[in-house]
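Intended use. Records like the one below are meant for learning the mapping from a protein sequence to its folded structure. Do not use them to infer anything beyond what is encoded.
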Amino acid sequence: MKHHNSVFQQLLKVIPRHQFQKVVDRHNGDHRIRTLSCWTQLVAMMFAQLASRVSIRDLVENFNTCHSHHYHLGVSRIKRSSLSDANSHRSASIFSETFFFLLQKVRSHLPRGAASDMVRLIDSTTIDLNVNQFEWAHFRKTKGGIKLHTVYDPEADTPTFFELTSAKVNDRKAAQNLPIMAGVTYVFDRAYDDYSWYYEMTCQGTLFVGRMKSSAVYEVIETRATKENFILEDQIIRLSSDKGRKDCPTYLRRVKIHREEDGKVLVFISNDLKRTAVEIAALYKSRWQIELFFKWIKQNLKIKRFIGRSENAVKIQVLTAMIAYLLLRLAQITTRCQLSLQQIARRISLNLSCCHSLMELFSDPPEKSGVGLLQNQGSLELGYV
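Structure written out for the chain above:
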């Protein structure tokens, strides 16, 4: 019978130990460490994500129970105090660099398109925290929280960049730190309405589609004919307020539609003067994919309950959640299975320590027919002595 490594070990194989160790050495992660190395810390946190462990006690007990697999994983037993200290004090940049290393692996398995066809979705999601336990994440009087600002590739179904900030940080301010590439189309909602940012993207050859605020002041330069009933207006405009003229002195596109699903009227603003109004509406509609991504990670990964209370521990847990997402995505891509990511996550969670190949794990067992069994039962005869 062919031997297979555990499912957990097969998933972790895509992170070369020597590559990870280079990152650790660069950040002095294992300096004066005797018990819990950065690699063991990563593996333990990945175990928490993939096996759905809910607390540090739950994680440590179940991780140590699987001690027969520790040698092959290159880890050893862990203690709660050691893991807690590591999450509180070790550099989160080690895990951030690991995320971007895996992201390149995911992208290398996907077909490359022209930059002009690339679309990126920008949005943020708030993760609520108990203000009494996470005082550093104070948001409102009785509420704490952090924000996950994300750039998402809808074709690859993966985040391409994310940043963790306090929930107080405005989306427009956080957008200044997001990587914006020339030739790519970015789609976002009203929270990112910023005229100077619009002009900056236009000057560097970046396209955008966003929601226009009802308070915007503009003059119509050209009105284009519309054939679709749900397209109410398609106009070339120029911002005419003092702020608009100063911060964004360029022609923009205004598209007004009637959404048939709920009867809502939406107004989009864009610097794309070539696409049709229908295409611009379709681009904005694709924004729901990043909402589904946020919903998925909150339901399937551990980013709502935290095993550490310090800011660094929370960052590391969110980073390892995103690493876990990329590991699942890589498993889906490389095995070319037809299962959804949620089905893959569930199967892996139940079989993390089992020695099955990923292909075998993601394949449904053949249905057993009962016909032959019934025929054999029918042919039995009683014998008497």
